[in-house]
Amino acid sequence: MPLRKTLFAIFGSLAVAVAALPAGSAEAIRGGVDVDVAQYPWAVVITRPGSPHPQKESCGGVLLAANVIATAGHCTGTGTTWSDRTVIAGRTDLTTSAGKTARPVAVYLHPEFVSCQNGLKCGDLALWFMDGNLGTAFVTPSSSQSDDATGAVATMISWGNVGNGQYTSRSKKGEFTRATDQVCTNAGFTFTAGKVGCYGPVNGSLITAIMFSFARASGGRRSPGCVALLPLVDRSAS
Questions:
Q1: Total-model pTM
Q2: Domain 25-229: what homologous superfamily?
């Protein structure tokens, strides 16, 4: 079985939580707490030239293998924009040189992302194959295919925008809890099966990688967000 197909089969239930932000924002956790990434060694941060972040943070991802990460399709692009990215593992503070770095040498975009006219709403997933090994701790998907995750907590690890145009160089942790569909509906959220949406290029690294977080802005402040299961894997991928 080809490597890419094998990888997609291995994490067939995997999804990545994406925080909804204003367009143009780097990934963010508002109201999170500082955390040492040694506690989450599979979490990686992606930097790119041109990012407004002082340390050029752009996106996040998770290790699936020593030299393979999963990240968002919109962090990858459909051209060659991914080639100038650097992936960093084991660096709590981006002002230091701690940890390991690697560059992507090949990427695999979800077929729906490639063909969709609005990539943020279709198959927003990519695999990056790196030019070096980044670690030995990897994300392992849940074996459960159950849709009943009400009350489950997903923890996002991020380096980025903490609100009001302020950035942090340190990794932060935020927790998100899944509510019932009715709670989300009552709050004014609607979800379409197989579709996702977010504002801006954001993608955090997760412990419980089964959630999509969607938050609304109201009067300059964020209202409570709602989450939905986000199946990102195309089992027919080859």
A1: 0.69
A2: Trypsin-like serine proteases (2.40.10.10)
